[in-house]
Amino acid sequence: METIENEQKLKLSTSNIIALVAVLLTVIGGYINIKSTQTEFNQRITTLEKANEDNKAGFTKFDFKLDKISESLNQLKVDMAGQRATEAEKTHNK
To answer: Is 24 in a helix, a strand, or coil?
Structure first.
């Protein structure tokens, strides 16, 4: 009778160990899944931040070019006004 009880206890503890291992594997699998998802999100964030920086750099270059064009137009206006003044002076002095 004692042997049957010991066998039942042994079976019970074996099934408990199997259940515990299953729970541990589930927990470890969930942890790995969470970590890999977190790593994937971090990579996406890094990629988006780099793209954002590239866009900002592109707009800065574009703004710089617009400033140069504006300066050139202003210089042309000054040159044309100077030329008109010179021509008016020549006409006035005749």
So the answer is: helix
